[in-house]
Amino acid sequence: MRAAFRFLVPLLVLLALVAYAASELMIRQAHRWAERDLSARSRLVLASAREGLSGRLAAGDRVRTRQILDEMVRDERLLGARVCGPGAEPPLRTAAFPPELACDRLPLRAPGATHDAVVGLPGGTVHLSVLPIGADDGEVLGDLVLVHDMSYLDRRAAETRKTTFVAFALVGLLAAASTLLASRFSWLSWTAELRRLLAAPFHSLGGAAPAASRTFQPVLADVRELVSRLASEEVSGGGGRWSAERLRNVLRTRLHGEGVVVVANREPYIHERAADGSVRVVYPASGLVTALEPVMRACSGTWVAHGSGSADRDTVDAHDRVRVPPGEESYALRRVWLSEQEERGYYYGFSNEGLWPLCHVAHTRPEFRAADWEQYRRVNARFAAVVAEEAPGPDAVILVQDYHFALLPRMLRQRLPRATILAFWHIPWPNAERFGICPWERELLDGLLGSSIVGFHTQAHCNNFLESVDRFLESRIDRERQAVVMGGRETLVRPYPISIEWPARWLAGLPSAERCRADYRRELGLPADALLGVGVDRLDYTKGIVERLQAVERLLDRFPEFRGRFFFAQLASPSRTLIETYRRLNDEVERVAASINARFGNGGPGPILLMRRHHEPPDIFRAYRAADVCYVSSLHDGMNLVAKEFVSARDDLRGVLVLSRFTGAARELAEALVVNPYDLEEASSALAAALSMAPEEQEQRMRALRGMVAEFNVYRWAGRILLDATRLRQRERLSVRLSDAWRSGEPGRGGDSGPPDEDVHR
Ligand code: F6P
Fold it and tell me: CATH for 511-712, among 3.30.450.40, 3.40.50.2000, 2.40.50.140, 3.40.50.10170?
């Protein structure tokens, strides 16, 4: 856009100059024509009156000569006429003849010679013709002076100038508008293209889809898939936007109000004892908690998790339960205590040094140790016992969360054969070849297949999972229904892209975005007009924090206009600090930030504001609202809810999201500037584009992003899983009744061999 202005200003100046020159040329030409015309008229006037005039003049008849002169000036343009010469004294002239043009002051070339001139008088410009009046014998009796009014030409000149300027101004405006539109379209061409592509599922575009522009391009196929799913859900009687209320309704009507049990390693509320002995509640930095907590508020039930806070034991009842959220208790948190050895092996070891790097393509080698595996199995079994205790009945609905509990669904199935077990894997699932690195790949797959449904964020992860099952287990894969049939049970494999609550509850107590913007800059010691970027993460190598800081450095290298004006606030909460890789990352981030600050600090604090500590949600939302740009640069991420939270925080429709294409979120948030975080040229260009983006374009993009996140909120995520679970339950119950009928030999059902396995769960 700035480039467009750089081009427009000289264009407009040039147009003004051309307009001026053109109008002057036209006026001069009109003058020339008018002079020629008036000279010819003067000669005509004289020719028609010569005889009478010369006769009267020769006869010295002043009265009649004056009458002839008066007749001449009836022509409306003739201002006056006079005769100069021997017989014309005292002056012989018409009444309106300009007194300034006395005979002795006329610009005569030579007496008796014809002469034309244009003379400026106080009353306006006049055209003067001096024409000799000859007698029949050739003697010159005097000069006839005819004065034509030319002031109309001045008026015409003024009009010509005005018209030319208006015409050129219109041309200029048109040129400006088309240049701005062209530049705008070059920014938004991909959006238009996307909309065209998105239209495909509805309008059944024939042939190949047009190639999309490569500029910060979203993952079109996934966005299209998402929108077509939304459309088909609406066609099949969606019932409007999903909300806590609608989710509660599903539970009440479809699952008969059965409480839900969620199992996750991380608890939604951690009680920590402060140095002064008081107890405070901490909200963990966890995408899983961000997503699941609002669902539990809506559904009630029980959340089973590792009790990791220093005051957790002091705040539970005799059954290790505490009602949460504090102050507005709506569900139970059941804490499971782990020994240090268990936590090291199950959480730090197998989960976070083994499975975490195995599932993320972020170039950290997975570590698999038999001792860690042992603890992993042991902790899964301990959780299975607790969950079975917490289950409200044999038909309980149990939501098993994440890679910490791959073995849990099978263990629960053994304890609760009729339960609806839904496992959701919050991180990517690698391809089969990579997954095969894990020495216990079969056990993990078999454990997950104890579920009724296994969910992932994306179809690609579902495909990888099915491919792994196909490679490592004896089972039947129904590709059409995306299901695995094993040991007489069916497990559906489905994509459910997770999301956040809408509207975000943290916004309720916050000041306006404008206020946050001003306050946050003041608190950071930045100028009020500073441009601010923000990043919010756990300090994890999958988040691409080093690459993000390097992109900022590259931005300042390539675009010096941002030096001293742009600052990047990195909110980083320390995570998994017992693991060496995480400690090294911490040092690396600090080193890179310090080196950038030394390069660009100019004696001051520098552009990177690294804030390594735990940040509570209201602080994070304030940062989102204060920022001009939020950069999510994950090298690989199942979904990434920071991207969605940033969007939910911007009810002012400002701010730009720059988003890594390696996040699940990039498949939904098409109006973000989607980049490859490894490509520092692309990432720094996107940051520059974001920082220079016109407010109208920010608004347009943010409105679309907000529409998407509002629609695909976490209530929809939970609702879809639960609705799929209900359908599955109905089918399962029906098939149980049918197989009972087979066994009891109901009429028409001859024989006692039941229906084949694969039919049981159809
Ligand atoms: O993103 C994967 C994940 O397990 C989330 O599900 C969770 O929010 C996050 O990592 C936090 O990790 P941890 O609980 O180990 O701090």
Answer: 3.40.50.2000
